[in-house]
Amino acid sequence: MTTKRGLITDSFKVAKKSKKREKQEKSPTPTPSQQDAATAEEEMRKLKQFDLDWRFGPCTGISRLQRWERAKSHGLDPPEEIRELLLETPAYPEYSLR
C-alpha cells in the first residue's frame, strides 16, 4: 500500500496577482524624494556648467555667487538662473563653493 505523495507546493494556497496591481508595478510614479534628487542633480549639473565656462572668468578662491557678481559687473552676461539658484539655497555649501 503506497500512499500518493504530493508536492510540497500542493499544501499552499495559490495566490494570483490582480491585473490592476501588475499595472501599478510596471509604471511607478516617482516619489517626492526621487523628484527632489533629480532636481538637485539637475541643479548641480547647471552649476558645474557655470564653473567650467571660462567666459565668466576664473573660479579659484571665490564663491560661485561672487564669481557671478564679478561677471555681471564686467558685463559678461552670466545666466540669471544661476544667481537665483545660488540665492535660494544659501544653506547648502555644495551650492555656494566649487
Annotate the secondary structure layout.
Blueprint: H1 19-26, H2 32-52, H3 64-73, H4 80-88, H5 93-96
Helix pairs in contact: 3-4
Plain-language structure description:
The chain is an all-alpha fold. The protein is built from five helices and no strands. Helix 3 runs antiparallel to helix 4. This is DNA polymerase delta 4, accessory subunit.
List keywords for this structure.
98 residues, mainly alpha, 5 helices, rod-shaped, DNA_pol_delta_4, DNA polymerase delta 4, accessory subunit, DNA-directed DNA polymerase activity
Question: TL;DR?
Answer:
With 98 residues, this protein is an all-alpha fold. The chain has helices at 19-26, 32-52, 64-73, 80-88, 93-96. Helix 3 packs antiparallel against helix 4 (80-88).
Biggest sheet features: none
Percent helix? 40-55%
Radius of gyration over C-alpha positions, nearest whole angstrom: 28 Å
- Beta-strand content estimate: under 5%
- Gap between N and C termini: 82 Å
Low-confidence stretches: none
The coarse overall form would be rod-shaped
What is the typical, i.e. mean, pLDDT? 79
Structural class: mainly alpha
Give a count of the beta strands, DSSP E runs of length 2 or more.
0
Number of helices: 5
Order of helices and strands: HHHHH
